[in-house]
Amino acid sequence: MSDYNQSVLTDEVIKAFGNAPSERLQVLMQALAKHVHAFAQEVDLTPEEWMQGLQFLTKTGQISTERRPEFILLSDVMGLSMMVVSLAQARNSKSVEGATEATVEGPFYWPGAPEVALGGDIAEGVSGEPTYYTGSVTDVAGKPLAGALLDLWSGDGEGSYDVQLSPDPSMRARGKIRTDENGRYRFWSIRPTYYPIPDDGPVGDLMRATRRSINRPGHIHMMVSAEGHVPVTTHLFVANSPYLHEDAVFGKRDSLVVEFKEHPPGVAADGRELKTPYYTVDYDFRLAKAAE
Ligand code: BEZ
Ligand code: FE
Fold this sequence. Notes:
single chain, alpha+beta, Protocatechuate 3,4-Dioxygenase, subunit A, 2 domains, 8 helices, 21% strand, binds benzoic acid, binds fe (iii) ion
């Protein structure tokens, strides 16, 4: 009978991580060791299964690039990204009470979107149904925040992001808008449609093997920030979009679901003439004060 005892093994690994000079790293690695050992024991993991798991992680690394972050996608479909978002929110719950809820950033954020004039179109030349977005950015008491920044990104009318369309993409359906002196914003884009998460890599294989839906409901992304306030990374979801109740990455929050009001062709509120039906959306973002 071997003297190899599973709980001694786990204890030894935990002890080995006990010398990390960073206390936080020690806590993270010891807990990770404890939980992966418990996972292997719970499912009675076989060598073949673990080799398959390692091959999956290897493929996840191999397909990853700056514009194709497959590990973020894996974290998203495991619900881990939303868990971390939710933990951050709970940790700051006192300070962010009343603030707009956060959701996943996802893999398609691209820093450096162009500044677009207030009222401008961030999706010029992009397919999709024109939509006029308006609203305000305020603090949690409703005080308008002038000069607040909305860093926006959206898929097109077919649900594709610029970074998915070519290996050397140029930016489209992205823009930075600043609120006016009354904390108001306005811009044109398109009505986002539902779309599948990238499924031509190992995460797609996992979704198919487990018969999971790969779709996300229609949404537009934004990071909203203002001096002296806690920034929020969030979406606006299209009410009644397919997949609203089976988001592949668990990102939907009821407070972020908004009505896209349909209008016949004609002149919009800002004087723009539309030859096709168009939509309007109105949503107020609320930011919590940052700690002093
Ligand atoms: C997105 O909304 O862009 C997204 C989020 C998570 C996974 C894939 C896409
Ligand atoms: Fe998205």
